[in-house]
Amino acid sequence: MWVDELEDDAPGELVPYGRRPYYKPEPLPPSRELELDAEFYERLSDATFWLGKLSGISLEVDFPAVLYTSLLRKEAMESAEIEGADVDYNALYSFETSTAHGQQDHGAQPSAADETKDVQEVLNYERAVEAGIETLDAGDEITIDLLHSLHERLLTDVPDDRVDTDTIGAFKTTPNRMGEFLPPVPDAVEGAMDALMTYYRTGGSYHPLVDIALFHYQFETIHPYGDGNGRLGRLLITLQLYDTDYLERPNLYLSEYFNRNKQTYVDRMDSVRATGAWEQWLSFFIDGVRYQARESVERTLELDDLRREYQETYGGVSYTANQLACSLFEQPYVTARSVAERFDVQPATAYRAIESLQADGLLEEVTGKERNREYRAKEIFEILERPPQTY
Question: What is the rounded CA–CA span in Å between residue 325 and residue 356?
């Protein structure tokens, strides 16, 4: 529950506004010196180590882009789940497969239509990350204009019951709440965001990971948009890690960690706002970085081991089944039609190849239908979908 009074160390003030005051955070950096002890710096060192390991593996492992896309989709699904969506890998790849081959059912039942909207939310997140990375690769900076563009990508065509604003791609025009907490009102947003972006562009005041944690807190506290602040704030973490050269590829995401520690996430930020408990928030955030970096390292290595195993077992032979096995890391979700088109073979040959890999345990059918069946790479998705192993 939000408070009516702030402690002396609170990094903000309550400003009278109607029936309830809004919270106006002080600009970064924190006005008091942070008390970061040896235990914190061990956490920070561990996070930096795993980020370095992840970047090194990203350079060494010759992975098809689809696997990095799959890790990005894991983040997108976790982020959408926080916002109330319910979607999984099967729905995502099935949507893409049916769209690619013109097989969408335009007479779908309402539940299927709702699932399509959930899929759209996830794909929006995926495309927004990619757009942000392209912007940084082009030599541009993270700016307010970029934030507006990403916000628009995130909320376009999202279900009405998960969008609580008519202002998309621009700062909010009416006050918004987080429970009883009232963030800065519209007139206060532009100045607060200009100060935040200036802090980031000038390099901050602390270790880059600490500054990213401070930025995330400040962004979510300002809550500059009418809706979508959580989605955009989580996305910005990945962009900032990439922008500060902690990632060679955008393959580290924190939504999985936040999703499994929702209440702690909320409580730690509320404690900063009310009491100035920066150290607890920073420790929580840095733990998320190190845990998720290690998760990404271990998943990447397991996927690479599996890829090598498939190459050794099925590589070097031109049979369609063998070619399909070795291509699963590029296209882990298939239909008989997609296999026939990919390898320029007859449908019967495609079916036999799929049945062969089903028998070997590489593919599994996921629709339960008699016609228009869809198959996914069983062992690949087992690695992608498993719950966190490091926390």
Answer: 10
- Burial of 102 by CB count in 10 Å (0-12 exposed, 13-18 middle, 19+ buried)? exposed
| CATH class of the structural domain 317-385 | mainly alpha
Distance (Å) of CA 142 to CA 75, 189, 193: 20, 17, 12
Position of tokens 């982020």? 79
Non-local (6+) Cβ contacts of 309 within 8 A are none
Count of Cβ atoms closer than 10 Å to residue 146 Cβ? 18
Q: Give the other-Cβ count within 10 Å of 365's Cβ.
A: 13
Asked if residues 227 and 155 have their Cβ atoms less than 8 Å apart, the reply is yes
Against a cut of 0.85, is the pTM above it? yes
Give the span between the Cα atoms of 223 and 218, in whole angstroms.
8
DSSP three-state, residue 23: strand
Q: What is the tally of helices (H) and strands (E) in the chain?
A: 15, 5
| Tens-digit pLDDT profile for residues 259-290 | 999 999 999 999 999 999 999 999 999 999 99
Who's near 112: CB < 8 A, 6+ residues apart? 105
How do strand 363-365 and strand 333-334 relate by DSSP bridges?
unpaired
CATH superfamily of 37-103+110-301: Fido-like domain (1.10.3290.10)
Domain ranges of the chain: 37-103+110-301, 317-385
